[in-house]
């Protein structure tokens, strides 16, 4: 899974130097668990201090959604209809990580005992370094000193997804598609995909190209995305340098579990 790191520049009352906590998350950034209603399961997040001084971190929750236009939303925990944030107990809200050491942050997920639960439920656990010159820092020697400066904060987002056993399905639809020429001058098909189902999809996506006579030209691979219910992504699939003419493109989305979706397009390459 692609590492989700959220750098934030804050105009703050702090020292004049730029401070950044040297922490990194060493465990997976997507935690998936198939679970029955009424059960509890546990997980851990491994955080390493890559510096030679003590570092502080804080741990908190948000909801998480995203759309094909590149926008991401980190809302209040429990606000989304399919949020599992309120099911999660964090073992810590903040802690210190010794130099060149790794700590484990535990959490527990208590799945409600309800027969109406179906499909996938998810939220985000955020791990954020606390700069030593921050007012939040317990090691800040002079938190009352006020000077304007820039503080850089790096946040790691860990997706925690619960999939109710034997329930739900994905339903992938193409919202829009556009044939463009990329920066290298090659034909590229941009395809925006939404999951209208109620279970997470991580489809293999590819395009099968045929010329005007129906002869196969080749296969062009997309890339894997996590597409939660109600979220959407944009695939930018490079078709390459093609001779002028008309082509047929079959877009295939294979989400597994016999869930295969597709669409056919006629492309004019000029």
Walk me through the structure:
This protein is mainly beta and 270 residues long. The protein folds into 2 domains: 160 residues, Immunoglobulin-like (Sandwich); 98 residues, Immunoglobulins (Immunoglobulin-like), CATH 2.60.40.10. The chain has no helices and 19 strands. A hairpin with a 5-residue loop joins strand 13 and strand 14. It is globular. The N terminus is likely disordered.
Taking the alpha carbons of the first and last residues, their distance comes to 36 Å
The CATH class label of the largest domain is: Mainly Beta
Low-confidence stretches: 1-19
Radius of gyration (CA) equals 23 Å
> Helix- and strand-based class?
mainly beta
Number of helices: 0
Oligomer: single chain
**Arithmetic mean of pLDDT:** 89
* Secondary-structure element order, N to C: EEEEEEEEEEEEEEEEEEE
Helix content: under 10%
What's this model, at a glance?
The protein has strands at residues 5-13, 23-25, 30-35, 40-49, 55-62, 65-66, 72-73, 88-90, 94-97, 102-110, 120-130, 148-164, 172-181, 187-195, 204-211, 216-221, 232-240, 245-254, 260-269. The protein contains no helices and 19 strands.
